[in-house]
Q: What sequence folds into this?
C-alpha cells in the first residue's frame, strides 16, 4: 500500500569500477619478477661480482696513488696485486702452522683431558653414570659418522676458494679494462646523467674504502686484544693466534667462535681455569665490539648513525646470514648516498635546494662544454674529473663547517 502511494522508485545509477593496467606496467612487473628469480638462482655469481667490486674499490686508490707518482697503470696494478698475494701468503704462513700445532697438541693430550673430565664427572652423583661412557669412547664409529659431513664441508670450502679466486681475477680484469668498461657504462646513459653517474661511482668507491678502513681497524683491535690477553696468561703461540683472530673478526657472528677455539686450545695446557678466563674475556670483548666499537667506527667511516649501523647488521644477518651481515653496512651507506644524489628530501630534513641545484647545473654545463664531440670513454674521464673537483670542494666546505661547530 505504501509502496504504491510513493510511486515507482528510481533505479540507482551504476558505477563501474575499471582498473586499466597498461602494457608497459605489466612488462615492468614481469621484468621485476624475472629479475628477482634470476638473482636468486645466480646469487653465487652476484656475490662473486660484489666481492670483485669491493676489491676494485679497495685496491684502486693505491693504484691511482702509484699512477700519480709516475708509474704506468699496468705496473701499479701488478705491484698492488703482488703485494696483496704476498701479504696473504705471509698471513697464511704465520697462522696455519701454529693452528696445526695446536691441533696436534690437542690430539696428543686428548686422552689425558678426557680422563680428567671423566674423573670430575665421577665425583658427582648426577653425572657419575657418564664417566665410564666418556672413558670408553670409540673413535671409529665417530669417524665413520663424521666422514660424510667432513666431505661436504671440504667440498663447500673448495667451492668458496674457487669463488674467491674468480673474484680476484675478475677484479684484476676490471682494473685493467677500467677505461673501456667505464666508457661502455657511460655510453648506455644520456649525457645529461653522466655527471651524476660519475658522482655516484666516486661516492661508492668512498663507501667501500671507508668500510675497508673500518674493518681493518676493528680487526687490528681484535688482534691486539687477543695478543695482550694470551701474553698476560703466558700462553704460547700468542702472535699467530692473535693474527688469526683478527682475520676471523671479518666474519660477523661466527668470527668470535673461530677466534675462541684456537685460543682455548692453546690455553688448555695451562689448566681449565685459564681456559675459562680466556673464553669469558673474549666473549665479553666480542660483546663490547659489536655493541659499541662497530657502531662508532663504521658510523664515522660510512657517515651513518650508530643506530642505523646496528639495525643494518641485524637486518642483513637475519635475511642473508653471514653474507648479509657483511654487505649490510655498505648497502645501507649506498642507499643513503643514492637518496642524497637523487635529491630526495627525507621527512624532517631541510636542504638548501637552490645552492645544490646551482652546483649541479654548473657541473653539467662545464661537462657539456668539455665533452662535446668526444667518445664515451674520454667523456667518462672528464665527468670523473669534474666530480672529483666537486667532491674536494664539498669536503673543504664540510671541514670548515665542522671546525666552526
A:
Amino acid at each position: 500500500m505504501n509502496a504504491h502511494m510513493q510511486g515507482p522508485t528510481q533505479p540507482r545509477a551504476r558505477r563501474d569500477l575499471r582498473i586499466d593496467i597498461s602494457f608497459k606496467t605489466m612488462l615492468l612487473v614481469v621484468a621485476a619478477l624475472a629479475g628477482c628469480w634470476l638473482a636468486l638462482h645466480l646469487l653465487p655469481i652476484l656475490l662473486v661480482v660484489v666481492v670483485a667490486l669491493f676489491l676494485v674499490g679497495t685496491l684502486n686508490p693505491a693504484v691511482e696513488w702509484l699512477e700519480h707518482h709516475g708509474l704506468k697503470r699496468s705496473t701499479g696494478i701488478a705491484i698492488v696485486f703482488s703485494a696483496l698475494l704476498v701479504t696473504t701468503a705471509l698471513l697464511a704462513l704465520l697462522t696455519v702452522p701454529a693452528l696445526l700445532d695446536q691441533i696436534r697438541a690437542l690430539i696428543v693430550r686428548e686422552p689425558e683431558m678426557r680422563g680428567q673430565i671423566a674423573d670430575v664427572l665421577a665425583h658427582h652423583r648426577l653425572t657419575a653414570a657418564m664417566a665410564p661412557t666418556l672413558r670408553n669412547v670409540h673413535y671409529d664409529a665417530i669417524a665413520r659418522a663424521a666422514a660424510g659431513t667432513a666431505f661436504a664441508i671440504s667440498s663447500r670450502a673448495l667451492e668458496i676458494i674457487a669463488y674467491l679466486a674468480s673474484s680476484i681475477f675478475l677484479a684484476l680484469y676490471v682494473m685493467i679494462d677500467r677505461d673501456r668498461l667505464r666508457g661502455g657504462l657511460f655510453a648506455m646513459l644520456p649525457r645529461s646523467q653522466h655527471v651524476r653517474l660519475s658522482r655516484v661511482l666516486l661516492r661508492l668507491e668512498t663507501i667501500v674504502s671507508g668500510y675497508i678502513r673500518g674493518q681493518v681497524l676493528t680487526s687490528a683491535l681484535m688482534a691486539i686484544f687477543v695478543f695482550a690477553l694470551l701474553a698476560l696468561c703466558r700462553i704460547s703461540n700468542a702472535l699467530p693466534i692473535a693474527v688469526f683472530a683478527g682475520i676471523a673478526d671479518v666474519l660477523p657472528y661466527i668470527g668470535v667462535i673461530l677466534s675462541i677455539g684456537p685460543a682455548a686450545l692453546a690455553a688448555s695446557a695451562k689448566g681449565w681455569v685459564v681456559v675459562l678466563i680466556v673464553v669469558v674475556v673474549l666473549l665479553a670483548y666480542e660483546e663490547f665490539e659489536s655493541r659499541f666499537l662497530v657502531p662508532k667506527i663504521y658510523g664515522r667511516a660510512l657517515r651513518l648513525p650508530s643506530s642505523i649501523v646496528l639495525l643494518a647488521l641485524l637486518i642483513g644477518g637475519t635475511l642473508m646470514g653471514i653474507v648479509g651481515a657483511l654487505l649490510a653496512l655498505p648497502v645501507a651507506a649506498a642507499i643513503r648516498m643514492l637518496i642524497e644524489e637523487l635529491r630526495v628530501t627525507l621527512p624532517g630534513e631541510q636542504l638548501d635546494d637552490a645552492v645544490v641545484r646551482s652546483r649541479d647545473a654548473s657541473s653539467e654545463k662545464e661537462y657539456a662544454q668539455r665533452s662535446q664531440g668526444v667518445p664515451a670513454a674520454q667523456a667518462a674521464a672528464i665527468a670523473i674529473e669534474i666530480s672529483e673537483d666537486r667532491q674536494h670542494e664539498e669536503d673543504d666546505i664540510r671541514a670548515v663547517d665542522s671546525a666552526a661547530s
